[in-house]
Amino acid sequence: MIHENLGDLVMLIYKDLKTVMERDLKKYDIGMGQMQILMTFFKDVNSTLTQNDLVIHLGVDKGNISRSMVKLLEKGYIEQLPENKKNFRLSKKGTDLKLEIIPILMRLDRLITEDIESSEMKQALTTLVKISEKLERIV
User: pLDDT tens digits for 33-69?
Assistant: First the structure.
């Protein structure tokens, strides 16, 4: 399949990556919105974040963040701080989940990049970062 339009190619990659991730993470019952939130907490398992922090960090509207947070709370992957109900952190179950999910994501990353030279990967990442930054300025 020939892709002449960058936007079409990015959308196709996103769709296929989303499909594979949802399949590989199905047993955890985690959707993409919830996964974005978990990945933010996974960067620092001791961090505490508010819904507003996540809105700013992820660039997702508060309604979507709120719905995903409710699901993550119900599943026991995050918890509210007893002293401040606006702050959330990973629960023990969420920290344990990180140990299971990160290897799955690393395997997927290796599978999709294994035939790409490091110089090609570096150039692709540099280009995509520039595109992302330009889009952030016009959004």
Answer: 899 999 999 999 899 999 999 999 998 999 999 999 9
CATH number of the domain enclosing 113: 1.10.10.10
The beta strand positions in the chain, using DSSP E, are: 78-81, 84-90
Is residue 107 in some structural domain? yes
- Asked if 93 contacts 78 with a C-beta cutoff of 8 angstroms, the reply is no
Between CA 40 and CA 71 the distance in angstroms is 16
Q: Which residue segment(s) compose the domain that 64 sits in? A: 6-138
Asked whether residue 47 is domain-assigned, the answer is yes
Residue 138 has pLDDT above 70, yes or no: yes
For residue 38, count other CB atoms closer than 10 A to its CB.
21
The position carrying tokens 């952030």 is 136
pLDDT at 4 over 80: no
